[in-house]
Amino acid sequence: MRIAITGGAGFLGVSLARRILQAGSLAAGGAEPAPVDELLLVDLFPPPADLADDPRVSALVGNVDDSADALGEVDVIFHLAGVVSGAAEADFDLGMRTNVDGFRAILEHARSLPTPPVLVFTSSLAVFGADPAIGPQETVDDDTLPRPQTSYGIQKYIGEQLVADYTRRGFVRGRSVRLITVAVRPGKANAAASSFMSSIIREPLAGVRAVCPVPPDTPFAISSPARTLDGILLAATASDETWGSTTAVTLPALTTTPREMAEALERVAGPETVALIDWVEDPTIRAIVDTWPARVITARATSLGLEPEPDFESVLAQYLADHPPARGGAAPSPLV
Amino acid sequence: MRIAITGGAGFLGVSLARRILQAGSLAAGGAEPAPVDELLLVDLFPPPADLADDPRVSALVGNVDDSADALGEVDVIFHLAGVVSGAAEADFDLGMRTNVDGFRAILEHARSLPTPPVLVFTSSLAVFGADPAIGPQETVDDDTLPRPQTSYGIQKYIGEQLVADYTRRGFVRGRSVRLITVAVRPGKANAAASSFMSSIIREPLAGVRAVCPVPPDTPFAISSPARTLDGILLAATASDETWGSTTAVTLPALTTTPREMAEALERVAGPETVALIDWVEDPTIRAIVDTWPARVITARATSLGLEPEPDFESVLAQYLADHPPARGGAAPSPLV
User: Fold this and answer.
1) pLDDT of B327
2) Cα A198 from Cα A180, distance rounded (Å)
3) Which residues pair with B141 in a beta bridge?
4) Looking at beta carbons, which residues of chain A come within 8 Å of B92?
5) How many A×B Cβ pairs under 8 Å?
6) Which residues are CB-neighbours of A49 under 8 A, at least 6 positions away?
7) Other C-beta atoms within 10 Å of A202: how many?
8) Which residues of A form the catalytic set?
9) What is the mean pLDDT of chain B?
């Protein structure tokens, strides 16, 4: 079997590739598991060495907008590539070109294949937003009307519509999954408003100070990297019948707060580590976070067998297992 | 003021143009009413003579996909043009090209103007559908999640998302209105599954037999031409604040049945006229009609001052006033 991952050199893409290669086979769309003969990673950057060295891996370095036809015949496409939220807001045309037109090129390529491939489209909880005339969508479920308030959210939601229609028409076997903010992520802090949801854990564990820009009891939704991959992989392996409706499935989320996170960190790493968190409110970030759904009711995901982490302690334990703190130094990360 | 109507030679476009010209002025986006200096009608066909003869009317005959930049500076755009439901289902690429890419060209033209124009986008109740995994959306309101089950419905829903984001960013002052099946329409029966909702009234009044393909008590939603135009015009004249959310407003609908329609017809035109309706069920049409929302709860439209016709008798009275039956012959129609 031949599998393509767009965005295959990003954090999730690399993690997904490693898991697929480790499993060695995939039960695409509910079929019997078949061996993974080739895994094509499409991204602006080449994949890390451990992936590049795997004989099953090939890399296509370039813009996803231009790479669609170079995918060739594939059985499964994981479409993770895209312009992120902040960039799509800063440059409307770039977001439309990549997140809408680039994805349409992928869908058209898939449609041109002799056998419709399974296509997993990673949408986002960012399809929900705080409509100024209505207010935030604090709790959402599978039937909640998305009211995106960013160009990124609009573009992802358009992607969901395209997946639904291409699937209904039999051009692809598409499945849209709405990802939750992934935490704890390895690597470095970035400009995303959600960056603190990882950095207030990751940095103190590495002996580095980190700022929490929202009040300690601010609720928000997160998903561990492992549970996020569970959802993406289930979307690829469920049968059409099991998957059900062509509308998007929101993945399960753990609703937590900075206070809960800090308490879990203190139990594991002690008060000196927690003291490295600076509680300095940033009204801009707080306002953005307040527009995000903090609670998701995910009946479809649950019926598909997906569950969120039970508590933040489990998320933290997973992070520590994957990234054991180096003695007196920064936590090693395969992606830094 | 300069106004453009795409689809300006169709039934609704022509009716809208006549109403705007008759009023002579328009209060665009809540501003003071300003005289209509030029009304540009864009369509594949030239407008009818009464419009073409009006010195304020100019016509642009051509494909809407290619006409966007020829609109020039406009204060208000009514975007009614599009590939209809059946055609968009028969030819996926045509629908995407016209209903998505053609509309994007209009939006990009609007964005290029020095002052963001008011843009009314006519979406459709066809954004709702009977998801095979979930079932029909029998009753819908402003917060119901659309699950389009046709390419037309998907394309209209994508249009709504584009309107929302172009408006949020200040590129246009967009308003999406979801139209209800318009009945009673003048003219001829067509291939649309909803065609009977007009023809079982129009044809008997003209002394011609007509088939009702659904059981007499099948509920469905209709809107009279006048109430439909009320909604489209209100969308153009409401202030941004009054209009509120950038999500679409579903226009009010009268829920009626063929039995109610026939009873109203009998009271007005007698049993011989009603006897011209042949009750011959067509399972295909019945199945399609059963997937359409029969009841709409339109809180936003109501708060904007829009109301459905109170009963089918009122719809029929309006049709008879606009199209008095000719002695022993077909009802005259400006559009036949």
Assistant:
1) 56
2) 13
3) B297
4) 169
5) 63
6) none
7) 24
8) 152
9) 94
Per-residue pLDDT reduced to its tens digit, B93-102: 999 999 999 9
Inter-residue long-range contacts of B259-263, CB under 8 Å, 24+ positions, other chains counted: B259/B216, B259/B217, B260/B311, B260/B312, B261/B197, B261/B200, B261/B201, B261/B312, B261/B316, B262/B200, B262/B212, B262/B216
Q: A103-112 and A151-168 are packed helices; what angle lies between their axes, rounded to 10 degrees?
A: 10
- Apex B294 CA angle, B292 and B297, nearest 5: 115
User: How many beta carbons lie within 10 A of that of residue B92, not counting itself?
Assistant: 16
- Structure-token pair, residue A101: 């037109």
DSSP states of B261-282 as a string? Answer: HHHHHHHHH-HHHHTTEEE---
Please judge whether B245 and A134 are an interchain contact, meaning their C-beta atoms are less than 8 angstroms apart: yes
pLDDT number for residue A325: 73
Interface test mutation site (partner B, options A143, A154, A240, A300, max chain B beta carbons within 10 A): A154
Q: What is chain A's mean pLDDT, rounded?
A: 94
What's the confidence (pLDDT) of residue B189?
A: 84
B154 chain-A contacts, CB cut-off 8 A: 161-162, 164-165
Among candidates B209, B212, B205, which has minimal Cα distance to B186? Answer: B205
Cα separation, A317 vs A330, whole angstroms: 17
- As to burial, measured by CB atoms within 10 angstroms (0-12 exposed, 13-18 middle, 19+ buried), residue A11 is middle
* H or E segment to which residue B318 belongs: helix B312-322
Nearest to A305 by CA among A248, A235, A226, A245: A235
**What SS3 class is residue A271?**
helix
Distance (Å, whole) CA A257 – CA A264: 11
Q: Is the Cβ–Cβ distance between B116 and B170 less than 8 Å? A: yes
Can you give the pTM of this predicted structure?
0.95
Q: What is the mean pLDDT of residues B153-164?
A: 98
Domains of chain A (ranges plus CATH)? 2-180+224-250 (3.40.50.720)
Mean pLDDT, residues B197-222 = 97
